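Why should sequence recovery work at all? Because a backbone constrains its sequence more than one might expect. Tight turns favour small or flexible residues, buried strands favour hydrophobic ones, and helices have their own preferences. The token representation captures these environments compactly. In the example below, the structure is given first.
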């Protein structure tokens, strides 16, 4: 890409660096009262026109009630829930769980604490602003993929790797420290329950994913989508799939998340106390295509109130002895041959960190032509 647009004299890299260097994030831009957004946030017409295709119907992603699963031995009921989870993961790749056992007070405190972090003056947050901790520790920044993506998006994020190496808790900003630690614990419990149900849906032992260390490499990201003065020109988060096993997402009441279902984009309506679960690329691969990693995006926020979401991505902690992963051998047979080849940790990392979040290229890259 040319560093300088010869016709207009627009130096995109210079503008990106100035924005990044100011450490003010989009929250800072929004708070400054700007009425038009910097040009590097403006998305191309193809992306923007696709935003007009959002579903206006009342469909929502499946809602699964986990009451009766947690601490219960009612096997018939469990089988019904396993079926629901399996069906949702196969057809939607996304579902919302309710009655998951996490008290509403913990949920409210988490949202409140992440909002409080982002609400601080940007001079206070600036000391956490960095990009070099993308693969470990704590990092606060605007657009993790700022320099990799084609266009920037209207969100800032506080990111903390909660495992597999224990996080240095003192590295977390004090304003949300206890809440982040508590949320990690609660969300991991929910993830464990969901992973058990997902395993059973594949005919595997309930504890298989835990044994494969899928609960260990967790990254927690507290996003803030502040008011955007030109929401029709940019996005909150570019359409993408999540790379890991599963994601647990908690959001406040400000809408914006959309999930692709068939040819339609479906609005995910916030359900009070509900937690959104979605399958990542890795789950699609190891399940040999049974569970789907589905594209999702967030609209730029047109409401004066910030949208807050807290996601925990469950990634791979350990790679097999030879450093490869692929469809689980237990799921393969002559009727169901592998549709993906094995891939290495290096391929996974290089693929993810070499580009913006907008392409599902790992899955495409390792698909076998059966
Ligand atoms: C993500 C993501 C959606 C949201 O961080 O991968 O899809 O609602 N976030 O913040
Ligand atoms: Ni995502």
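From this structural description, the recovered sequence reads:
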């Amino acid at each position: 890409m040319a560093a300088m647009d010869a016709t207009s004299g627009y130096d995109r890299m210079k503008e990106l660096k100035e924005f990044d260097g100011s450490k003010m994030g989009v929250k800072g831009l929004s708070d400054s009262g700007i009425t038009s957004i910097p040009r590097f946030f403006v998305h191309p017409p193809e992306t923007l026109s696709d935003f007009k295709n959002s579903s206006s119907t009342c469909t929502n992603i499946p809602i699964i009630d986990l009451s009766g699963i947690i601490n219960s031995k009612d096997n018939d009921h469990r089988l019904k829930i396993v079926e629901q989870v399996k069906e949702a993961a196969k057809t939607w790749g996304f579902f919302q769980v309710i009655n998951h056992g996490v008290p509403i007070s913990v949920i409210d405190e988490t949202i409140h604490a992440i909002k409080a972090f982002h609400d601080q003056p940007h001079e206070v947050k600036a000391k956490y602003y960095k990009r070099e901790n993308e693969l470990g520790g704590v990092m606060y920044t605007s657009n993790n993929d700022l320099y990799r993506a084609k266009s920037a998006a209207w969100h800032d994020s506080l990111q903390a790797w909660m495992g597999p190496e224990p996080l240095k808790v003192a590295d977390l900003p004090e304003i949300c420290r206890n809440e982040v630690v508590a949320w990690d614990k609660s969300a991991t419990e929910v993830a464990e329950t969901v992973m058990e149900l997902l395993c059973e849906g594949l005919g595997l032992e309930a504890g298989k994913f835990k044994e494969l260390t899928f609960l260990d490499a967790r990254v927690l990201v507290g996003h803030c989508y502040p008011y955007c003065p030109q929401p029709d020109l940019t996005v909150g988060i570019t359409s993408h799939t999540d790379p890991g096993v599963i994601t647990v997402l908690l959001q406040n009441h400000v809408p914006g998340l959309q999930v692709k279902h068939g040819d339609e984009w479906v609005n995910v309506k916030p359900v009070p106390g509900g937690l959104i679960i979605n399958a990542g690329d890795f789950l699609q691969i190891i399940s040999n295509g049974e569970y789907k990693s589905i594209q999702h995006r967030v609209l730029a926020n047109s409401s004066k109130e910030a949208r807050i979401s807290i996601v925990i991505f469950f990634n791979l902690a350990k790679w097999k002895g030879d450093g490869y992963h692929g469809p689980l051998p237990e799921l393969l047979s002559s009727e169901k041959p592998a549709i993906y080849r094995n891939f290495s940790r290096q391929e996974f990392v290089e693929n993810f960190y070499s580009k913006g979040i907008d392409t599902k290229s790992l899955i495409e890259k390792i698909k076998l032509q059966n």
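A few observations help interpret the result. The mean pLDDT is 92.
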